[in-house]
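Risk register update: the risk of archive-format incompatibility is retired. Evidence:
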Amino acid sequence: MMAKKMMLAVVAVFVAWSALDFLLHGLMLRAAYEATAHLWRPMAEMKMGVMRVAVFISALAFVLIYARLVREKNIGRGLYYGLLFGLATGVSMGYGSYAVMPIPYQMALAWFGGRLVEGAVGGVIVGAMIKK
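Archived output:
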């Protein structure tokens, strides 16, 4: 039963993160990406399949870490875990990239904030779906 809940949680986190990625990268940051087009592959050369697999593996790891390592399982703990995960991945993605790439600061901040929000949403999902 726990394995079924975990797989459903992986799918739910994957779908939520994919939707949030579309909102952030596809809509909110569209102009910023167009202004820095020289940094990115042309749309026709984007490896979207690789991106989807990467998001799925991240969702899988996120859920497994919660299920295996978080002792008290509830929405509050899930949110806390998700915020910590979002902080760690957001700093790395947003500010780590900003340190080595000529991206605008607003893009780095948006990447950081996006990962923080995605972590929180993922945490609420696992906290609601995976309980003892």
